[in-house]
Design a protein that fits this description.
2 domains; disordered C terminus; alpha+beta; 38% helix; flat; four-stranded antiparallel beta sheet
């Protein structure tokens, strides 16, 4: 029996044979043999049943969303946002945002979630993050992007060096663009100090300049 046949039918369309990779919303893992397939089947079926139970008793939504693999958690969040209280909504938006690595794939939807007219938006942050944001008014922010990156994105940083790191990470051969902007406190959705970053989430910023990074040098454009 080959690996595809050893997987339960619902998983077979998510099996990438050349890479020996299963990429399903509930299970993302390498599968090297039929024994691995049996383990994956059991994990998948257990999660699937758990999701059925959670649909009946959703709670704060966190368990439901985080049963999904990271690339699929935003879609899971979208499915349940209408069933969440304002506090649960904002806490889950904050947790999924800081956990995500594919923000750009869902940019328009993220804008809608952050702009939702729901009370208690401060609940997306920790008490320490809220205290840090309260001390800000109008302040500079930076954003690092590759050649195809969005200049006016949602994610900004107070740390210029961190923005340079992202610009070089997403740019080719160490190049990239460094966006220098100014933002008003009332335009900020959230301030996060998780993942060793000082991240500002904001839709409305004033771009002041763009620096084009080449190797170890910078040139204005």
């Amino acid at each position: 029996m080959n690996i595809a046949d050893a997987l339960v039918p619902e998983l077979r369309d998510y099996w990438l044979a050349e890479d020996r990779l299963l990429h399903h919303p509930l299970v993302v893992t390498r599968v090297f043999n039929c024994e691995d397939a049996g383990r994956v089947n059991a994990e998948f079926l257990s999660k699937k049943q758990h999701l059925r139970d959670l649909k009946i008793n959703l709670g704060d939504g966190q368990e439901y969303v985080f049963l999904h693999e990271r690339p699929y958690r935003f879609r899971a969040l979208k499915r349940i946002v209408r069933d969440l209280s304002p506090t649960d909504y904002w806490q889950l938006v904050g947790k999924v945002w800081t956990d995500s690595e594919n923000i750009r794939e869902h940019f328009a939807d993220w804008q809608r979630l952050w702009s939702a007219p729901k009370i208690k938006k401060h609940e997306c942050m920790t008490p320490e993050e809220r205290a840090g944001l309260e001390g800000m008014s109008s302040f500079p922010v930076w954003r690092g992007i590759g050649s195809r990156g969005r200049v006016k994105g949602l994610s900004w940083t107070l740390d210029r060096d961190n923005a340079v790191w992202f610009a070089r990470r997403f740019g080719r051969s160490g190049s990239g663009k460094l966006i220098h902007a100014e933002v008003e406190r009332h335009s900020v959705h959230a301030f996060f100090q998780r993942r060793q970053e000082s991240e500002i989430v904001a839709s409305d910023v004033e771009v002041l300049k763009i620096e084009k990074l080449k190797g170890g040098n910078r040139s204005m454009v």
